[in-house]
Inverse folding.
């Protein structure tokens, strides 16, 4: 854990593709140094070129960011649909055991985390715009399959589990989206841009938990229209596909090769950062997935509130505050360095989890909600700050001066993009680990407090790792991480 942060040069065998002549006008034409080709391809993109950035580049990046956020938002919606649907299954006539319910909650995260590995390389393979179209269209499969399956209480558990696994398509979107956006922004603004992109996506988890209970109960009297949990998202998915096809771009320099990816995997700091990201993003997505179930088990009277003819669950507040806090974490890391902000986030997360353990026997729902919201907020800030550390560390390891504000050469940027996707993939396994640990705690010890105590210990370890490797290491290297 005390490995030196001395620079190493990243191997790369890929050279930038030759610039081709424009075949016609394109949105944003006239930007210095850029050539626009059919299929929404852009040659010569360099966000570190101030002239290019100030004279049209910023607008192109913002346009791509907006549609990336929308597509990723829907990815998170589909990814987290089962977290709120499982709470409604008993009322719809399903009779699954507790362990089966936790598998339905955690399976999308397991598959989504695994898909993030190949999704990382889809942007270099197909182009950011093209892959956004494909990955958004794939969301139609789990949305429609869920709508059909939950309409029949006789649907076997195995079929339900398979459909829950298909929701992992939504989780994979994050890796490709973040890898794509990192190419559009200069190093000095990556923290905020990546934080905003991620926060917009993360909000999908919150909106799924807010909208689904309302949609399936409004006007349904004493019954549930559970299939609407899937059907209501289909028009928005189609809108994302159309919007991405018309308004997003492919960057010809957004390339990665196998050698650069292997170099990223061999970099010890990739695995240290992935460990920390399990603690931040893994906690966010894991607790977001299991929060509706925790409320239903511990405080059934507060699991749902009647709002007219509809039902509202307060579980959405956890993922909401975590999502909104993420860009703040990125911005704080831009200003003060990611290491110190990440350490603070882990400390607060540990305090929040410990407070839940201490106050849970009191049976006070509002204390339970308050301390979980503290945990969610800290995890969101930690998401942004940890992710902001990745470009800085990889740039510094490549020998770049002022790595906190300079992304390095094209080879370093490609290696960084691969690392962003790989780290996001490993971190997402927290969405599987946390429900499984809490499910084991409940079935083996009769409560969730044992599992929560294990997370407090894990956060303490992560504070030490962050401080030792990055806070102290950055000071020794004379730079801010």
């Amino acid at each position: 854990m005390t490995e030196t942060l001395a620079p190493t040069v990243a191997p790369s065998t890929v050279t930038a593709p030759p610039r081709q002549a424009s075949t016609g006008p394109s949105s944003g034409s006239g930007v210095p140094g850029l050539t626009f080709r059919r299929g929404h391809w852009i040659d010569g993109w360099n966000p570190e070129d101030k002239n290019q950035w100030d004279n049209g580049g910023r607008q192109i990046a913002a346009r791509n960011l907006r549609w990336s956020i929308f597509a990723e938002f829907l990815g998170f919606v589909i990814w987290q649909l089962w977290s709120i649907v499982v709470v409604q299954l008993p009322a719809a006539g399903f009779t699954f055991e507790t362990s089966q319910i936790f598998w339905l909650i955690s399976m999308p995260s397991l598959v989504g985390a695994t898909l993030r590995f190949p999704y990382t390389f889809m942007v270099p393979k197909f182009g950011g715009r093209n892959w956004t179209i494909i990955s958004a269209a794939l969301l139609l499969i789990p949305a429609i399959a869920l709508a059909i399956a939950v309409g029949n209480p006789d649907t076997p558990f195995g079929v339900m589990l398979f459909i829950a696994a298909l929701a992992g398509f939504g989780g994979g979107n994050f890796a490709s989206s973040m890898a794509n956006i990192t190419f559009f922004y200069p190093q000095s603004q990556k923290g905020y841009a990546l934080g905003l992109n991620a926060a917009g996506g993360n909000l999908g988890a919150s909106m799924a938990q807010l909208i689904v209970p309302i949609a399936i109960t409004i006007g349904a009297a004493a019954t549930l229209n559970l299939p609407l949990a899937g059907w209501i998202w289909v028009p928005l998915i189609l809108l994302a596909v159309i919007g991405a096809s018309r308004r997003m771009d492919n960057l010809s320099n957004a390339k990665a090769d196998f050698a650069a990816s292997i170099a990223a995997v061999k970099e010890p700091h990739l695995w240290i950062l992935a460990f920390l990201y399990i603690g931040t993003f893994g906690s966010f997505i894991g607790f977001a997935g299991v929060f509706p179930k925790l409320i239903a088990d511990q405080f059934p009277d507060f699991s749902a509130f009647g709002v007219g003819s509809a039902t509202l669950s307060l579980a959405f507040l956890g993922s909401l505050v975590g999502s909104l806090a993420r860009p703040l974490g990125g911005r704080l890391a831009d200003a003060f360095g990611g290491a110190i902000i990440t350490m603070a986030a882990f400390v607060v997360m540990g305090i929040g989890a410990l407070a839940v353990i201490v106050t849970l026997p009191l049976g006070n729902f509002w204390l339970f909600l308050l301390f979980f919201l503290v945990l969610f907020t800290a995890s969101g800030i930690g998401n942004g700050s940890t992710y902001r550390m990745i470009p800085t560390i990889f740039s510094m390891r490549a020998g770049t001066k002022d790595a906190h504000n300079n992304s390095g050469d094209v080879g370093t940027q490609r290696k960084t993009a691969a690392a962003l996707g790989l780290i996001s993939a490993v971190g997402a396994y927290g969405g599987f680990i946390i429900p499984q640990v809490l499910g084991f705690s409940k079935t083996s010890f009769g409560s969730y407090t044992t599992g929560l105590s294990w997370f407090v210990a894990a956060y303490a370890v992560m504070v030490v790792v962050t401080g030792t490797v990055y806070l102290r290491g950055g000071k020794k290297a004379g730079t801010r991480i």
Summary: Residues 6-28 have pLDDT under 50 and may be disordered. The chain has 18 helices and five strands. The chain has one domain: 39-477. The domain at 39-477 is CATH 1.20.1250.20 (Growth Hormone; Chain: A;).
